[in-house]
Amino acid sequence: MLVLVVEDEVRLADSLCEIMKSNKYNCDAVYDGQDGLYYAQSGIYDVIILDIMLPKLNGFEVVKKLRQSGVNTPVILLTARDEVTDKVRGLDCGADDYLTKPFSTDELLARVRAVTRRQGDVVLDELKFDDLTLNLGNYTLYCGEKSIHLGFKEFEILSLLMQSPKVILPKEDIITKVWGYESDAEDNNVEVYISFLRKKLSFLGSEVTINTVRRIGYHLEVAAK
């Protein structure tokens, strides 16, 4: 899952990103409303954590412009004000939830899980495709009686492929989802992890293979029986 943090207090923004990363979420941070809107409009994020009091564009304006442009990514507003009018205004602008500063890490993570569940993005405990089952809690891939543990990036890539197994997943989408929007990762980084995954599928004896569509990306397919 890819999270965008929009917060003008740089230390807080970076701390929030570290919290996300330590809980196995990828995260980007920007520090004003204008950049927040630009990044959010890309549509690549699964959830946006957005401060209200921002330079250039405030959080209310960012949410309103996002919804007007058709971006429905879940938004959690952060506010230093514990005022009902602010909360109502934020929700009326299109935000999905809000947190009043200061807040606990556990509460923030719970709100992130809650808003993504409402979108139908992060509910399952496992993903299945043909003879494969991927446990989303312990990063273990099962095929019949055999199983193997996946590394973090292997897990992220395979979960993306298993969510839409017959849809070609472009390399660019893998890079932004797994490494982050501002990552220096390149196509060969993706190719290395695809190679790792293919070896693990072979070890499991799975009928599922990762097919390369040249110059585009990858999708899953099942070997003919």
Walk me through what this model shows:
The chain has 225 residues and is an alpha/beta fold. Helices cover 42% and strands 24% of the residues. The protein has eight helices and twelve strands. The protein has a five-stranded parallel sheet with strand order 2-1-3-4-5, with helices on both faces. It has a four-stranded antiparallel sheet with strand order 6-7-8-9, covered by helices on one side. A hairpin with a 4-residue loop joins strand 7 and strand 8. Helix 2 runs parallel beside helix 3 and helix 6 packs across helix 8. The mean pLDDT is 87.
Given helix and strand content, the structural type is alpha/beta
- How many helices? 8
Shape: elongated
Strand content: 15-25%
Q: How big is the Rg? A: 19 Å
Residue-averaged pLDDT? 87
Task: Please list the strands of the largest sheet in the order they lie side by side.
Answer: 2-1-3-4-5
Number of strands: 12
Helix-strand pattern: EHEHEHEHEHEEEEHEHHEE
Distance between the termini: 34 Å
What percent of the residues sit in helical stretches (DSSP H or I)?
40-55%
Residue stretches low in confidence (pLDDT < 50, at least 5 long) are none
The biggest sheet, with number of strands, parallel, antiparallel or mixed sense and barrel status, is: 5 strands, parallel
